[in-house]
Amino acid sequence: xxxxxxxxxxxxxxxxxxxxxxxxxxxxxxxxxxxxxxxxxxxxxxxxxxxxxxxxxxxxxxxxxxxxxxxxxxxxxxxxxxxxxxxxxxxxxxxxxxxxxxxxxxxxxxxxxxxxxxxxxxxxxxxxxxxxxxxxxxxxxxxxxxxxxxxxxxxxxxxxxxxxxxxxxxxxxxxxxxxxxxxxxxxxxxxxxxxxxxxxxxxxxxxxxxxxxxxxxxxxxxxxxxxxxxxxxxxxxxxxxxxxxxxxxxxxxxxxxxxxxxxxxxxxxxxxxxxxxxxxxxxxxxxxxxxxxxxxxxxxxxxxxxxxxxxxxxxxxxxxxxxxxxxxxxxxxxxxxxxxxxxxxxxxxxxxxxxxxxxxxxxxxxxxxxxxxxxxxxxxxxxxxxxxxxxxxxxxxxxxxxxxxxxxxxxxxxxxxxxxxxxxxxxxxxxxxxxxxxxxxxxxxxxxxxxxxxxxxxxxxxxxxxxxxxxxxxxxxxxxxxxxxxxxxxxxxxxxxxxxxxxxxxxxxxxxxxxxxxxxxxxxxxxxxxxxxxxxxxxxxxxxxxxxxxxxxxxxxxxxxxxxxxxxxxxxxxxxxxxxxxxxxxxxxxxxxxxxxxxxxxxxxxxxxxxxxxxxxxxxxxxxxxxxxxxxxxxx
Length: 636
Prior knowledge:
Blueprint: E1 2-9, H1 18-25, E2 35-42, E3 47-50, E4 72-80, E5 94-96, E6 101-109, H2 112-121, H3 131-142, H4 146-149, E7 152-160, E8 165-170, E9 179-182, E10 186-190, H5 193-199, H6 207-216, E11 229-231, E12 236-241, E13 247-251, H7 268-282, E14 289-292, H8 297-309, E15 317-322, H9 332-341, E16 344-349, H10 356-367, H11 374-388, E17 393-395, H12 400-404, H13 410-420, H14 424-433, H15 438-451, H16 484-496, H17 498-511, E18 515-517, H18 523-529, H19 534-537, E19 538-539, E20 542-543, H20 545-551, H21 557-561, H22 572-577, H23 581-588, H24 601-612, H25 619-634
Parallel strand pairs: 14-15, 14-17, 15-16, 17-18
Antiparallel strand pairs: 1-4, 1-10, 2-3, 2-4, 5-6, 6-7, 7-8, 8-12, 9-10, 9-11, 12-13, 19-20
Helix pairs in contact: 1-5, 2-3, 6-25, 7-18, 7-20, 11-17, 13-14, 13-15, 13-16
């Protein structure tokens, strides 16, 4: 887990300022405090490895970037958080001078041992035990098809002198961020926007992205909150021609509708075996490792199966959990059931609101975007606890809900999908199997039917709180299917849910120099999950049906039997109407609200007063407005 950045100049008569580049590079220090490396490409084609203030002593003979006199047309930077092969052999940028290939890389390749063995069989030699060298030799062997071989999370940048190009690649799910900026004279890329922002002063707030956040809290895979900064979408490569500055993007992994895989069923045994194989490679680490344990099915299974089936796990297993004084929001009892089943060393984290504005400002600064809810605040608090306990790698359960059908509203989509297929008995069975208030489910189904085909924003159009920008909000580019259930999962995976969760997972962990790993998003699990039909994910009202059955007998029975999706819960409503009310008043009822053209301040003040008077419970919209105001102040 690291940070990468680069700046390429296209004009032959222009040279980059290495001191300015380095000061921007230092803004990524939290992503890799263990080492740093820099590389310059001069106008005459010479490559100059350089050091910075945090470069390890082994490379102290390299010239310091701020002392150089070369005229550079390109500069590259890397910040290292050492996880695999802690020696100086893992230093980046890592190069093959003979072949003119240099790599910088953020992330972790879990199957690096297997790929290394394959490459050794093809005649390649290795000087280190690092996954970076696997990427370097893998690129020489497979070129732009490298991503097909990798199982992990990554943002990769490769300078290829033979083809005079830069190759960028991002992992399948988008666990690792990769931003870029391009104009007629230059191209910049980075793990975080703050590097680009410090190099480019004239950036414009993306009103379309702000509008979409405020109304639906959804994220496009290529947009950001600044019009000029883009994201490389998940599962994409980008190739930049250094001669003329032209670039192209290509998708190396696509999600196919389950019907395209044929009718071969996947058993719970198949799923279990895939999960164990995935867990084993996610536990590879040369530094202390732990599990973020929420009390739900996903994180509990990571802890229980790692303890029972993975001899490579570090023992006792370090586990970390968030709890609250408000017992109705705490999963403490479920967590204790899991702890009794495994050999563990556990730490509790209890978020509080002391110095709230300062902490929230620090969090939004780390996130670089306004956040959805206080759950991100609680997770930030948890990562702080992990760091204070000297653990560097933390495993979590993100991704399982989107892949295996874990959200409560998926039941309604399953009923609708069976009705679409004219499978009325199955629809009735799902209806009867739902626990709780079936009237609520009827409302969900009506809402889905009313809004289907008219876009995600139509449900919110009744609340005239935000002014629509001129920018057209792009529609999903995902493959289209008439399968209602599958399309909802796909939307959550690519747009509505997972991108935001992966964003805050990366920024919160990296703010404390931690590596967060998500086994459910491993390559084998992804390929398997997208082959499953609705009946494998929802059956008899039970969500995550096949996953739950695969885990039966291996997790506490109380968790196996718990069919209510709680999520990363927090007493948000209570806090917004209690200890945070005065702070919210200060922002939403003040003139701060009047200076934003996507906000209708009069209607929002009225809507906020109705909320505090308990005339509605739409805490989410209130919170997003509040966070957007803070974010705007930070980005003036």
